[in-house]
Amino acid sequence: MVPLEGKQLVIFVLWVALTAIVIGVFWWVMRSTRRPDAYDAVSKGGYRLRKSWAWFYGTLLIAAFAATLWTVPYAWAQPAAAKRPAMVVTVRARQFSFSMPSRLPAGRQIEFRVTSDDVNHGFGIYSPQGVLVAQVQAMPDYTNVMYFTFSAPGTYTIRCLEFCGVGHSDMHQTLTVYPAKGSV
Amino acid sequence: MLARQLERTEFHAEDAGLSPRRVVGIGLVIGLITIYGLAMVGGIMKAAQGNLLHLAPETFYALLTLHGAGMIATVVLLTGVAHWYFLREHLTLRVEVLLFAVAAIVWGLLAAAVAVLVGGFAPGWTFLYPLPFVGATWPAWATGLFFFGVLFVGIGFAIYCLDILAGIVREYGSLLNGLALDTLIPRLRRADGKVAPPTVIAATMVAIDGILTVSAGTILVIALLGRWASPNFPIDPLWIKNLTYFFGHTIANLTIYVSAGVIYAVLPHYTQRPWHTNKIYAISWTTSLIFVPWAWPHHLYMDFVQAPWLQLFGEGSTYIASIPATVVTIFGALLLVYRSPMRWRIGSTMFVAGLLGWLIGGAAAMLDATIPFNDVLHNTLWVPAHFHTYLLGGVFLFVLGFASHFAGERAAPGRFAKTAEWLFFVGLGGFLLTFYAGGIEGVPRREAVQPAPGPFLADIATGFVVILLVGLTGVLLETLWRARHSAGQGGEA
Question: Which end of chain B has fewer CB within 10 Å, C or N?
Fold first, then answer.
């Protein structure tokens, strides 16, 4: 199994917590039918709770939306490369391979310019441990620009993440990420 | 216009022995048999991904296409007939129109099935341009036939929506009143004080957005048929990708809102409590009407070239669309159940469990629709995990609940029914968990041969699919038995 880390760990914890809370609430509501009461007796409190729930949920969503504005993976939200300009790498996808360099440096911001020669493809980057760390679509007639910095050297896997035809599951290749110049 | 044509042809379904209840029953039986078959197809695909049996990639992707397209069309059919059954209590709807709609959807399904099973059409149910035309392993006729099938399903749904909209205007004076906006705007109020009940409000939203999504789908299919007829037909890949998801996402999403209309109608029978309209419902469903069709851009987050405002608007719309569902419909349903003299039958259990599936699948969908999370979830098994949770674990449970209610539930379920129910839920839960585990592990969706741990998870999933199907068989047999032994009136009294 792939180790749970980074965003995947956050998502997993959030989903498990939400699911557990929801199941707990449903279980409690279902068991309550063993002690029936008049609707008028429960509805007033219920409407008050609904109001609080609406405020809480609405505030949560606004906060989540605001937080995403600074963390989206798009070019306009990316900081410029700290010391030197990003290294530009062109990726051309086609049924069923990628045309791109086989070696790239770690620790340097890379500007991937991703396009396709035929149908829609996905350009997914998997870490040496098998964790999906970034992706962007490869679309014909358009170039998607993605900024990414490989944090560590190793053998990464590039995998198509958009169904692209009969050879889709064979559309993956390795990428060697070498240590940044000057690193130990 | 359709009604006038029907009158001119002097076809009256009831003269042919097709009562409204019978037509609903026909739709229900066709839909349930189709879903059962398509669920088996799903199980076969899982077994193939788990290396328990061998499927050539072209066969796997053809089955994937059939499973996806077939399930969506069938769920549209099933939820549609279920809601129609209750809407007739409030609206004057013609059974002939429903019959036409059911027939159009069934013909569409058959055309798609022939295109896939005979022609080998296999670009997935989203048939994302230009895939149906580039590197195709199937003949051109299969492509054209499949698109005509989609068109037929769209026509069926559009006819259904139009008849409901006409019925709402006839009964409540306007579509604004159908949304119960007269509870907010005094000048809209009717002299007789009649206000649309929640099930009609849901129907108004679904029918308006339904027409919108079918219109988009028609433009999409016409463009693809143009390209099918002439390779030089110009299509912009980004434009058609947006259109594809506008149509595909919205029509799939609407099935849960149709189901909400069914819940509004049926849950009061089980809880013995009324479900009244108020201002909150008017605001809530108007919000859904506006924002549900705007959620589609969350399918294109990874197309970085898309306009930034559209990406953010997609995220915002998805968030906003979740508020009415959680704060009004699901909360309202739980409040109706809480400390009620609930009659626990297969139907009521399925409805409450379906609400749970809606929430859990919805939570997973919200995480996926959050842009910074989407770049590690998009097109992994997390996507089918969440939509199987709210379609199989939500909408389909509402359909099973309706089928049970429709068949008649005059006694509490016996040991056979309870065992079948538990087997079904255990199979369902285990099957869904393998999807979530695959998603969080980064296993790609739509792959005939998956990287690890995909095959291991698919093996486990196959086992749970078998349990699910055994349980489902039991639930359906129980429902059939009850239908044969009831007075043919349904209900749970």
Answer: N
